[in-house]
Write a structure and sequence with these properties.
This protein is of the alpha/beta class. It is built from 13 helices and 12 strands. About 40% of the residues lie in helices and about 15% in strands. The termini are far apart. GO terms for molecular function: DNA-binding transcription factor activity; transcription cis-regulatory region binding.
Length: about 350
């Protein structure tokens, strides 16, 4: 008896409550015209009273459209993915679509990401957006002809699927040029492995390349994890002519600045530090980070638009769309010690 009382109300229950046919309830719920307002009001009142919510799955099976996009997110706890997911959700809603996402509690492993793809396809999503560099081309291949795919936040260098991403070369080079223009001639660049983050590795290599072209001596600090920051800072401090530290993200920048503070090294009075990302609490003007702001709102919006363009049919070439961000001057870069007379 208890189970019967707690069951979900159905379209038949709404029809009985409103005193209309099942087909009339369907027409009202789909927003079709030609229904008298009095009947619309009765059906909506009955649905609200019973707590009835139309089944998107059932509607999709009937119309062959679910108006739903699937998203695979590498790690929702990281601010980058949280802000990107929010931008996609906003754009999908503007275009009349819902979004279903699967993400890792921590890092979404390659196996879990592959399973997420299968789970989302089983839910009959109409298009897929992948926000994880953990998936290889081979993982897309079984589905690529059946459902539109777009990669967001990372470039697909194989050009198998279309991708929208921050212009890492532009960001890395603009930060490097800024450090050079302030007169720094020996610089440390904290570089993460490519296998951990293609994007962070790419921006680091862009910094290193331009600094070298400008005649600046670069010390590359290979960084395998956040726990190594203190050790790497100690190593850089053994080279007093290094006056600028360039970090792959604002989070790493914050950790570097904290380690410098513990060693009584002031920023920017003693050394200059740059970051990368420019969103969330670390983008506060109070902190004043010199950084490069990723255009996550535009990346998320364009990713949704791309996948919907492919849903509309027609031949669409694979596109790689880099989106330029915004350079933030901040207050963490200054003249090097030897140039300001100290």
């Amino acid at each position: 008896m208890e189970a019967a009382e707690s069951r979900q109300p159905t379209i038949f229950d709404v029809a009985a409550e409103a005193g209309v046919s099942k087909s009339m309830v369907s027409r009202v719920m789909r927003g079709e015209g030609g229904v008298r307002q009095e009947k619309v009001d009765r059906v909506l009142a009955a649905a609200e009273k019973l707590g009835y919510v139309p089944s998107a799955m059932a509607s999709g099976l009937a119309s062959k459209r679910t108006k739903t996009l699937g998203v695979v997110v590498r790690n929702a706890k990281l601010p980058f993915y949280g802000f990107l997911q929010g931008a996609m959700q906003k754009r999908a809603r503007e275009r009349g679509y819902q979004m279903v996402s699967i993400s890792g509690v921590e890092e979404l492993s390659a196996d879990d990401a592959r399973q997420a793809l299968r789970d989302l396809i089983a839910l009959r999503v109409e298009g897929l957006i992948v926000c994880s560099a953990m998936l290889a081309v081979e993982d897309f291949m079984p589905f690529i002809d059946r459902i539109p795919f777009v990669m967001a936040g990372h470039e697909d260098t194989t050009r198998t699927v279309s991708s929208v991403f921050c212009d890492e070369e532009d960001g890395g080079r603009r930060l490097a040029q800024y450090v050079h223009d302030f007169g720094h001639r020996e610089v440390a660049v904290f570089l993460v492995p490519r296998k951990y983050s293609v994007s962070q590795y790419g921006r680091g290599m862009a910094m290193i390349e331009l600094l070298g072209q400008l005649g600046i001596r670069v010390k590359v600090m290979d960084m395998k994890g956040a726990e190594e920051v203190g050790t790497l800072v100690d190593e850089v401090l053994c080279h007093p002519r290094i006056t600028a530290y360039m970090c792959p993200s604002d989070v790493v920048m914050l950790n570097v600045m904290d380690e410098l503070r513990r060693r009584d090294v002031s920023v920017p009075q003693d050394v200059s530090v740059t970051g990368y990302d420019g969103f969330g609490p670390l983008a506060s003007p109070y902190l004043g980070f010199t950084t490069y702001r990723q255009p996550l709102e535009e990346i998320g919006s364009r990713a949704v638009d791309l996948v919907l363009e492919r849903l509309d049919g027609g031949d669409h070439a694979v596109e790689a769309l880099p989106v330029k961000g915004e350079f933030i001057h901040g207050r963490t870069v200054a003249l090097p010690r030897w140039k300001d007379g100290r």
